[in-house]
Design brief:
The protein is α/β, with parallel strands linked by helices. Helix content is 45%, strand content 14%. The termini are far apart.
């Protein structure tokens, strides 16, 4: 009771503090227009019971949705009559869920974790199995699902160093926040150790690897590749994926310096969040570097990249396509200590050499893998970033070697989906429903 009182009070205070910024973003950028009512529990999707289990997948945003997509697909294909509900927090995550998991029986936003909002919804859905991706632990959601008889599974599980440090000082809170799952399928030993130290029983924790290595990676068709080949005309290309403030300024300055030796260099900026597209365009305009945007290229067949130094990708869901154009990929969120990195192995699927910055605390397992396979180069200062990019631009053989190492990394790291499904079957909520193949 004491924990719930403190949790509800903290959630209310957080909501009140966040409300002014959310209102500004709503009015200025149109954020939350599609989700605000749903987050308050309005018009939550209905899902009817079938002959198989009701499985509720929850993922915060784009990255987590992409991670669970192959898992959801295999479960849907393998188990007769199962019904899938997929929820997200962000609108970009919801768009990705419709794109990556179109076969789900229902999509929706996870309502805010006030008991009066979430508990009646969980009771009505009555899931048999709740699968949470990576680590979005909402107490009332999880406890209501557990109370309704659902098994709870954390997949692709992780826990940040900061969260672990906080929870280790509050073991009574850790039990209620991260201790409710029946099954923990975690990405690596570092995360397994953290969960153990928080009091999670050993027999519930299993190292399954990273689901992101099993996700679907698009490959450009011959016609689209020819179009880009004509646009680029063998120019060297650096793709900066999932950028945050202040990384765009840093990269624009790098581009200006590198263009002294490579005057035809093209920098492709892919901002992480769509509400920053205009802001990033303003930064590029201020830099005086000639630029265009992907929306202009797609809307005008006569538009050209010939005299442009920068291309801004003002479109969501295009990053993996854009990585295929790169000679070098800089994975962002790593030159800001507010983020701590994104998926630094994503370009490796395409054999693209990767460079990333000093802040990688959000992806420690991927950092270790990339270093183990020599599939990426970590830099720590802007000068080191410049030197590394220049060296790679001058040495195509080195780029090729690093890219080939990345492909090997991908091949060896796959299989987490099958390992996770095998463990989910032990919950008893999938057993007996497997289709014959």
């Amino acid at each position: 009771m004491l924990f719930r009182f403190i949790y509800n009070a903290a959630l209310t205070v957080f909501a009140c503090c966040a409300a002014p910024k959310m209102w500004r973003d709503y009015k200025k950028h149109g954020k939350y227009r599609n989700s605000i009512k749903a987050r308050l529990g309005k018009d939550f999707p209905q899902i009817s019971k079938g002959p198989g289990p009701v499985i509720w997948f929850h993922a915060v945003s784009v990255g987590e949705v992409k991670a669970i997509a192959p898992l959801a697909q295999k479960i849907k294909e393998a188990f007769a009559g199962c019904r899938l509900l997929v929820t997200t927090i962000t609108e970009t995550g919801q768009a990705e869920a419709h794109k990556s998991i179109p076969y789900a029986d229902a999509h929706g936003y996870l309502p805010i974790d006030w008991p009066s909002v979430i508990r009646p919804i969980v009771k009505k859905i009555a899931p048999d199995l709740v699968i949470v991706a990576e680590g979005d632990h909402w107490h009332h959601f999880l406890s209501a699902a557990k109370g309704s008889g659902a098994h709870l599974a954390l997949v692709n599980g992780k826990i940040s160093k900061k969260t672990f440090s906080r929870l280790s000082k509050l073991p009574w809170a850790a039990k209620q926040i991260v201790g409710l799952y029946d099954l923990y399928c975690v990405q690596g030993e570092e995360y397994a150790t953290r969960f153990r130290k928080l009091g999670i029983k050993e027999d519930r924790i299993h190292i399954t690897g990273n689901l992101k290595f099993d996700s679907s990676y698009p490959v450009m068709g011959k016609e689209e590749r020819c179009v880009w080949h004509e646009r680029l005309n063998n120019r060297p290309v650096i793709v900066a994926g999932s950028t945050h403030d202040p990384e765009e300024k840093l990269l624009l300055e790098q581009c200006r310096q590198l263009s002294k030796e490579f005057p035809d260099l093209l920098l492709i900026l892919v901002p992480r969040h769509p509400d920053r597209f205009k802001e990033v365009e303003g930064l590029v305009k201020t830099s005086s570097l000639p630029y265009t945007t992907l929306s202009i290229l797609e809307g005008d067949t006569a538009a050209s990249l010939q005299d442009k130094a920068v291309l801004i990708v003002d479109k969501m869901g295009a990053l993996r396509d854009i990585y295929q154009l790169a000679d070098i990929a800089y994975v962002a969120g790593t030159f800001t200590d507010k983020v701590g990195g994104h998926n630094i192995t994503e370009p490796s699927y395409y054999g693209i050499p990767v460079v990333y910055g000093p802040h990688i605390f959000s992806q420690p397992d991927l950092h270790l893998l990339a270093q183990e396979y020599n599939a990426a180069i970590q830099v720590h200062t802007p000068q080191e970033l410049y030197n590394t990019l220049l060296d790679l631009l001058k040495n195509p053989d080195k780029r090729r070697t690093i890219g080939d190492n990345g492909k090997k990394l991908f091949q060896h790291a796959q299989g987490a989906t099958d390992r996770t499904i095998a463990l989910l079957e032990t919950t008893g909520r999938l057993t007996g429903e497997r289709k014959k193949t």
